[in-house]
Write a structure and sequence with these properties.
The protein contains nine helices and 13 strands. It starts with a strand and ends with a helix. α1 crosses α9, α3 crosses α9 and α4 crosses α6. 33% of the residues lie in helices and 25% in strands. β1, α1 and β2 form a beta-alpha-beta unit. The protein folds into two domains: 135 residues, 3-Layer(aba) Sandwich (Rossmann fold), CATH 3.40.50; 182 residues, Dihydrodipicolinate Reductase, domain 2. The longest helix is centred in the middle third of the chain and has 17 residues. The protein has 326 residues and is of the alpha/beta class. The radius of gyration is 20 Å and the shape is globular. Bound molecules: adenosine-2'-5'-diphosphate. The site of adenosine-2'-5'-diphosphate has 19 residues, from α1, β2 and α5.
């Protein structure tokens, strides 16, 4: 298989290379693309150093799949060329996620949707993927009607710059130096920022509305209502989400625990509460603190954690290719 990665030098792009290697995807050619800043950079892929290229006319020719790990404006700019060249574009940005002609896919949940693509498949928002993985086993028992979610999102969600900003702030504070936040709106070290992306007309941020809108599309639950609060926390790469939900039918806790038994990619944590540090750098989503919700009749409350760069982005995208080529 011939695969391209656009944004190969970023946090998600680099993990895409690792996920292709780990999942033993049969890659006969890997083309890496980034900005002109990275021209000449070499990245080791499958044991060989591969040089980073810039995107130019005809550069996607002959590829079977292109993985996108760039911002939405660049995905929009490159998509037509990728599709015209005959490759399928698996895009991690928000550019096409809500387009009715583009499947939005978490392979364990709606992998079949990926087969009905017109050349573009979207990879969902990171905290939405992790939350859907955690609640979908319950949705299979009875459709979820309502959900309240609060996210605790790692700085990796803002890419390499998010990771370096937290590192640099911690170092500056330790040395008594001044610093000015650039990637985040306020200091993130030793702090929480309850606004990710900008506010929309209803007072919720774009990031918060993804949980409802993308969640509906992934889980095939068009009537799902979600109230979400997204918070950036000083954690490097695993997102955590607190969820309260109510399904059409009341559920017992036994039914809920049993629902996780055979569901791939999700594990109940043995000690009952996964943390971001313990769940980092792996593809599994972990669930704990399952209990009866005290507000929603017959509802359930839970806590989940998953690596933002892996299952929340790169590994999910690679799994889409894996699913389509199985
Ligand atoms: P570069 O490293 O050359 O800037 P992150 O979200 O982790 O910051 O990663 C963003 C990715 O998008 C990087 O690989 C970055 O490359 C890439 N990128 C930025 N601008 C362009 C562009 N014009 N064309 C292709 N890739 C780009």
């Amino acid at each position: 298989m011939k695969i391209g990665i656009v944004g190969a030098t970023g946090a998600v792009g680099r993990q895409m290379i690792k996920s292709l290697e780990e999942r033993k995807i049969d890659v006969s050619e890997l083309r890496l693309f980034a900005s002109p800043r990275s021209l000449g950079t070499k990245i080791n892929c499958f044991g060989e150093d591969v040089g980073v290229q810039v995107v130019e006319d005809g550069c996607f020719k002959g590829l079977d799949y292109v993985l996108g790990a760039v911002e939405a404006d660049l995905s929009e700019k490159y998509a037509a060329d990728i599709v015209k060249s005959g490759a399928v574009f698996v895009d991690n940005s928000k550019a096409f996620r809500m387009d009715p002609n583009v499947p939005l896919v978490v392979p364990e949940i709606n992998g079949e949707d990926a087969k009905h693509n017109n050349g573009i498949i979207s990879n969902p928002n990171c905290s939405t993927i992790i939350t859907c993985m955690a609640v979908y086993p319950i949705a299979k028992l009875s459709p979820i009607k309502k959900m309240i979610a609060s996210t605790y999102q790692a700085v990796s969600g803002a890419g390499m710059h998010g990771i370096t900003e937290l590192e640099e702030e911690i170092a500056a504070l330790a040395e008594g130096r001044d610093f000015t936040p650039k990637t985040f709106t306020k200091q993130i070290a030793y702090n929480c920022i309850p606004l990710i992306s900008s506010l929309t007309e209803n007072g919720y941020s774009g990031e918060e509305m993804k949980m409802q809108n993308e969640g509906r599309k992934i889980m095939h639950l068009p009537d799902l209502n979600v109230t979400c609060t997204c918070v950036r926390v000083p954690v490097f790469r695993s997102h955590a989400i607190s969820v309260s939900l109510q399904c059409e039918d009341p559920l017992t806790l036994d039914e809920v625990f049993n629902a996780y038994k055979d569901f791939p990619g999700v594990k109940l944590t043995e000690d009952g509460f996964p943390t971001p540090l313990e769940t980092s750098d792996q593809d599994t989503v972990f669930v704990g603190r399952i209990r009866k919700d005290l507000v929603f009749d017959g509802g359930v409350a839970l806590w989940c954690c998953g690596d933002q760069i892996r299952k929340g982005a790169a590994s999910n995208a690679v799994q889409i290719i894996e699913y389509l080529t199985k």
